[in-house]
């Protein structure tokens, strides 16, 4: 498995390098055999590996071989670095797990494949919510296939830990702190967390949503409005985050997200802020929602939904065989059978219409219901931490500020001011 340092080249540098290699004619032919797809992804935890195995299986039934290009590292920062290195050196994979505004950034490099042939034949425009279809297109043509909808604003809870501590399941931030105090007093870890920038940002955005609500979240973390970023509600968000920090154990630095989830699964810790890929870990461990674990909207955010849509971005291939296999991959991803099997393992819900919901558990059904309700209430918002809301340069700078705050005694006021400055990064 490839492991690459996580600093990502920013947009302008990448563009310059791509232009250089393109002008030098360095886009090499693929080394793939006849019916093969090479897919770069970062789904390496227990639940994730089971999910990606479904795609491999589906393709095998269509005679297409799977060449795995897995790059470990939650939220895909390492994978993004590996992808840039591959494209720059002229050997783009068939597809890569890329999502949100980054799809447009890659489109601007001129390295993407057009998969309209399959999208048109299968009527993707009528199967996908229009906002999702728009993200999957570059200049009006499909270049990516979506696999799911993850909800990020969840709190994962071990009810046995709550019981031992005499605490109750929290719905508000005040209740969250009450439960955390009781769990800590009972000698367990109140909050399972891994000190990695994307995990810090995951907690931060759920707290921002809980403190300020969806309108504040949109103004601050989607529109990057400087006054909102530096304003009193953001200061309050950081104050809340500072208090949350005190419930994290000393060994959290660098811990992977799935190991933090394991702490909740085995009762070492009581709660975790994480998107519903965490459910994939509970499910893979044979745990049942409602009894073995609880999926609760992050405190104070029940009426809102931070979405995170995974997709496979298709890269230009010169060989006809590769192009054909790529279309088979795109079609497989959008098939109802795959969307069902994949999402049952992944913890997410299908992104396209026409997938039966009968086999999905109570967390997934809640997600489906809340997605619809939040869409109507304009509180369905893109996840900043998971690359859905802003471009990669601004996102990287914002996440740097959040992590600095998590790892120092920086004041909330300074953090909010630094956030407003970071958001201007292009
Ligand atoms: C998210 C991604 C999920 C999940 C998670 C942990 O950004 O959308 O599919 O894999 O990171 O790596």
Automatic annotation (TrEMBL):
UniProt keyword list: Signal, Transport
A single Gene Ontology CC annotation of this entry is: periplasmic space
**UniProt keyword annotation of Cell inner membrane present:** no
Chief location of this protein within or outside the cell: periplasm
Q: Where is the signal peptide?
A: 1-34
Quote any Pfam family the record assigns.
SBP_bac_1
Task: Output the superkingdom of the source species.
Answer: Bacteria
Q: What SUPFAM superfamilies does this protein map onto?
A: Periplasmic binding protein-like II
Localization, per the record, is: Periplasm
Record's keyword annotation contains Ubl conjugation: no
**PANTHER family per the record?**
ARABINOSE-BINDING PROTEIN-RELATED, BINDING PROTEIN COMPONENT OF ABC SUGAR TRANSPORTER-RELATED
Per the record, the similarity remark reads: Belongs to the bacterial solute-binding protein 1 family.
Could you tell me what this protein does? Answer: Part of a binding-protein-dependent transport system for a sugar.
The protein depicted here goes by the name Probable sugar-binding periplasmic protein
